[in-house]
Amino acid sequence: MADAFVVDALRTPGGRRKGSLAGVHPADLGAIVLNALVDRTGIDPSAIEDVIVGCVSQAGEQAFALGRNLVLASRLPDSVPAVTIDRQCGSSQQALHFAAQAVMSGTQDVVIAAGVESMTRVPMGSNFRLHADAGLGTGPWSEAIRNRYDVAEFSQFTGAQMVADKYGLTRADMDAFALDSHRRAAAAIERGAFANEIVPVDTPAGPVTQDEGVRFDTSIEAIGAVKPLVEGGTITAANASQMTDGASGVLIVSEAALKRFNLTPIARVHTLTVTAGDPVIMLEEPIPATAKALARAGLSMADIDLYEVNEAFAAIPLAWLKATGADPSRLNVNGGAIALGHPLGASGTKLTATLIHALRARGARYGLQTMCEGGGIANATIFEIV
């Protein structure tokens, strides 16, 4: 099987909901990343054979073939095709998998995997929380699904609380993890750790160059004062990810393309997998996905230098640590979504950018990325620095 190489991995800063990126149309936000990938790598834009874009709330400004609209808003020629996919929070990680699989199969040589989500302009759930009177039915879960799982709907908040309870995670555990996420992110910003991965976004108020969600002065007292999201529970907005506007992207190419276009790779897609399990607890799936990825790769957890486990809720990486026995000092070393934000469809390739650049900065070799996804699914990807 052919290798799939990462030539560059980039992201915009994470904009707070209703923050500095709120005025940017999501197609334009994603186009900024496409343009930057071309500019930074020097790839002939006409050589790009597909653009695969992850997005969760495909409604309003994120509807009508959003992936194609990113291309049309960019400087890429209109001969470049595109497609939009939804694997919930793992949408752009799956976009990367599809891009890598195309290259590994030999059917394509140059593919961009990207993601975008403006949670300001297209609020979470915009594509399904519509009343039946709108002529769009009763929602995504049929009576057969509800009867099978004995639920009215599937809730990520309920799932996160179930994970916390199952793994014996206390409010204090999760609040402490949240504080550490902000501290790691703040330290990363102060030492310029994101300089090679962030693409500035020009706005009428000036360029946005830094993630907006990081609370440099937060405290365990401030985090502890936030009320639970589920009555009687321990999950709160402070120990969960932030709603964020952002885009990200990765250029994936074959070995032949490296030579043809004189490109220098920064990483290789070593292993990729996806698993699925219980859709009610929903968010526990990164644990079996990690086990499957490691087994497929012939590696152990000790071989992995850094891990990015999406901080949808603090309970998820904490449960993952307990189940895998992984080293906490290697996890989300530059902070995670609790501090940096979780722009849904963009988070997959966003984490890829952060992971690969963090590995390179440390002279490390292997990185593993995984995240929980709606419906009880999880992607897991192992990268090798080259």
Characterise the protein shown here:
There is one protein chain. By secondary structure, the protein is of the alpha+beta class. It contains twelve helices and twelve strands. Strands 1, 2, 3, 4, 5, 8, 9, 10, 11 and 12 form a ten-stranded mixed sheet that branches. Helix 1 packs across helix 2 and helix 9 packs across helix 10. The protein is globular, with a radius of gyration of 20 Å. The model has no long low-confidence stretch (mean pLDDT 96).
Distance linking N and C termini:
18 Å
Q: What is the structural class?
A: alpha+beta
The total count of strands amounts to 12
**Arithmetic mean of pLDDT:** 96
Indicate the topology.
Elements: E1 5-11, E2 15-16, H1 26-41, E3 50-54, H2 66-73, E4 82-85, H3 91-105, E5 110-118, H4 143-149, H5 156-166, H6 171-190, E6 201-203, E7 206-208, H7 220-224, E8 244-253, H8 255-260, E9 267-276, H9 286-297, E10 306-309, H10 315-324, H11 337-340, H12 347-362, E11 366-373, E12 377-385
Parallel strand pairs: 3-4, 3-5, 10-11
Antiparallel strand pairs: 1-8, 1-9, 2-8, 5-8, 6-7, 9-12, 11-12
Helix pairs in contact: 1-2, 3-12, 9-10
Please provide a brief summary of the model.
By secondary structure, the chain is of the alpha+beta class. It has helices at 26-41, 66-73, 91-105, 143-149, 156-166, 171-190, 220-224, 255-260, 286-297, 315-324, 337-340, 347-362; strands at 5-11, 15-16, 50-54, 82-85, 110-118, 201-203, 206-208, 244-253, 267-276, 306-309, 366-373, 377-385.
